[in-house]
């Protein structure tokens, strides 16, 4: 059979799966808030319970990263995420606090999710929770390299959601034989996702084998006011987590001249090996010989990498630190974040650090996060205003979107309680991106409109005055200000 025939066969199967998912999304749109929460809770609890088993399976299948870190990430990306996002309530109508206008959420339909190979289980957990909270259906695209563990994880989520009352077809899996990203683009090009009430959204990172297809830079600035011991500890923890297989990990440090020497001492104490010029050249030659990252090094810890390229390090070394002379476009160490190797550059002052961070944000294809360690309110404000990143992180590691190591450990507890809805907020996973808020216009008071009801017939609000205020709404009403 020719390759083109295989692709056409895959597209035909994909269309059937997407049609089933579309009808499941239609049914799921009518579910009330408590029904949605019951499904998501059941799914998250099951995911939390299987975190360690699936981490072992994932490690054995891809043979990369750190098994213990994978288990910890699976736990955080299940129950803790669920408890954080449930407060959003993407089901009921509400009144905007500023415009005093009623808005009601409309689910975007079917979401197509390409499962990455670098942390497949956690990504499946997080996307399933996020998308189901938005009352959308989800189709996972799974590549052959992670098929076994991904299939196990998805099957368990389907079973738990179904037992809690989810409609059949709400969570589906589509296996692909080639590049999952290219196949997703093919689905869009063939209009398979251009259906009523159906939106296309790919939530994924780049698989290990194709990491060089996209550059993603996370600059980190340490200013003169920072708590250096804390900053060093956080950076080493975040950068070394799962051997830096999360693409949101730090890629380059910009440290103010005033504290550069003290910071090097602190980060060495935290587990970093500061490489000499000769050792840095060994890294460039062995790992980036062709200009791209050698795939054989992906998922290895710092000690294994150092030993393989002839750099002597002490036992327990967590990251390799490469001092830089400048931000040269042809230096592969600048902006790399796929290995526990981190470039560090001494800068004159905070203004220069911001300028370098802006340069990186304009030069690279994507800056998902930018990090600042500082105790200066003025510096924090200036950094957030001038660095072009999807999210700004202050005094915390970047690999978990602003959660520091202490908070991360709290989220691993069976009875974890998320105290702030700001915690665990990750731009790529935010369930709000999967709904469209529809504004309800008109004079509801003049025509004595009856209480608004959702598709199940239950009340979601009361008769709304033409200019509603919080004191005019009954305390028991679900129609509340956000």
Task: Walk me through the structure.
Helix 3 (51-62) crosses helix 4 (67-85). The protein is globular and about 60 Å long. With 482 residues, the protein is an alpha/beta fold. It is 40% helix and 13% strand. The model is unreliable at 1-6, 194-214, 414-425 and 459-482 (pLDDT under 50). The termini are far apart. The protein folds into 2 domains: 3-210, Aldehyde Dehydrogenase, Chain A, domain 1, CATH 3.40.605.10; 219-397, Aldehyde Dehydrogenase, Chain A, domain 2.
Fold blueprint:
Blueprint: H1 3-28, H2 33-49, H3 51-62, H4 67-85, E1 94-95, E2 102-107, E3 110-114, H5 120-133, E4 137-142, H6 147-163, E5 171-175, H7 180-189, E6 219-222, H8 228-240, E7 252-256, H9 257-269, E8 272-274, H10 277-287, H11 302-309, E9 319-323, E10 341-347, H12 350-363, E11 369-373, H13 377-386, E12 391-394, H14 405-411, E13 435-440
Parallel strand pairs: 3-4, 4-5, 6-7, 6-11, 7-10, 8-9, 9-10, 11-12
Antiparallel strand pairs: 1-2, 2-13
Helix pairs in contact: 2-4, 2-5, 2-6, 3-4, 3-6, 4-5, 5-6, 8-9
Q: How many DSSP helices?
A: 14
Integer tally of domains: 2
**Radius of gyration (Å):** 24 Å
* Largest sheet strand order: 8-9-10-7-6-11-12
Q: CATH topology of the largest domain, which one?
A: Aldehyde Dehydrogenase, Chain A, domain 1
Overall geometry comes to globular
Mean pLDDT: 77
CATH class of the largest domain: Alpha Beta
What does the main sheet amount to? Answer: 7 strands, parallel
CATH-derived architecture of the largest domain:
3-Layer(aba) Sandwich
Quick one: how many beta strands?
13
Model regions low in confidence, pLDDT < 50 over at least 5 residues: 1-6, 194-214, 414-425, 459-482
Order of helices and strands: HHHHEEEHEHEHEHEHEHHEEHEHEHE
Level of helix content?
25-40%
């Amino acid at each position: 059979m020719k390759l083109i025939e295989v692709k056409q066969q895959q597209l035909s199967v994909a269309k059937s799966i997407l049609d089933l998912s579309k009808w499941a999304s239609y049914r799921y749109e009518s579910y009330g808030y408590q029904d949605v929460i019951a499904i998501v809770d059941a799914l998250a609890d099951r995911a939390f319970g299987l975190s360690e088993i699936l981490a072992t399976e994932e490690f054995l299948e891809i043979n990369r990263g750190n098994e213990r870190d994978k288990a910890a990430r699976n736990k955080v990306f299940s129950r803790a995420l669920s408890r954080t996002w449930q407060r959003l309530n993407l089901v009921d109508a509400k009144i905007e606090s500023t415009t005093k206008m009623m808005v009601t959420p409309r689910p975007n339909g079917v979401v197509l999710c390409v499962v990455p190979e670098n942390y497949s289980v956690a990504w499946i957990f997080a996307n399933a929770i996020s998308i189901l909270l938005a009352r959308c259906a989800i189709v996972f695209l799974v590549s052959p390299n992670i098929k076994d563990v991904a299939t196990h994880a998805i099957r368990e989520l389907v079973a738990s959601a179904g037992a809690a009352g989810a409609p059949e077809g709400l969570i589906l899996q589509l296996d692909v034989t080639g590049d999952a990203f290219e196949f997703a683009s093919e689905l869009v090009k063939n209009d398979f996702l251009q259906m009523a009430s159906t939106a296309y959204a790919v939530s994924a990172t780049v698989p290990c084998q194709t990491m060089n297809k996209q550059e993603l830079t996370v600059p980190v600035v340490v200013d003169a006011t920072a708590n250096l011991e804390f900053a060093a500890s956080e950076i080493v923890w975040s950068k070394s987590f799962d051997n830096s297989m999360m693409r949101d990990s730090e890629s380059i440090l910009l440290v103010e001249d005033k504290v550069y020497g003290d910071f090097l001492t602190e980060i060495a104490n935290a587990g970093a090996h500061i490489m000499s010029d000769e050792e840095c050249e060994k890294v460039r030659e062995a790992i980036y010989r062709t200009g791209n990252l050698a795939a054989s090094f992906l998922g290895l810890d710092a000690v294994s990498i150092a030993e393989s390229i002839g750099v002597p390090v002490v036992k327990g070394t967590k990251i390799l630190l490469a001092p830089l002379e400048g931000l040269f476009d042809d230096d592969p160490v600048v902006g790399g974040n796929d290995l526990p190797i981190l470039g560090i550059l001494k800068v004159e002052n905070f203004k220069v650090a911001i300028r370098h961070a802006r340069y990186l944000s304009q030069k690279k294809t994507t800056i998902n996060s930018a990090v600042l360690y500082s105790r200066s309110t003025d510096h924090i404000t200036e950094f957030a205003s001038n660095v072009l990143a999807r999210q700004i992180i202050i005094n915390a590691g970047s690999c978990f979107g602003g959660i520091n190591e202490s908070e991360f450990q709290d989220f691993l507890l069976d009875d974890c309680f998320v105290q702030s809805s700001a915690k665990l907020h990750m731009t790529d996973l935010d369930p709000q991106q999967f709904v469209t808020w529809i504004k309800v216009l008109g004079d509801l008071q003049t025509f004595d409109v009856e209480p608004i009801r959702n598709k199940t017939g239950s009340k979601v609000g009361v008769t709304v005055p033409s200019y509603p205020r919080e004191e005019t709404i009954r305390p028991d009403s679900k129609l509340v200000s956000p």
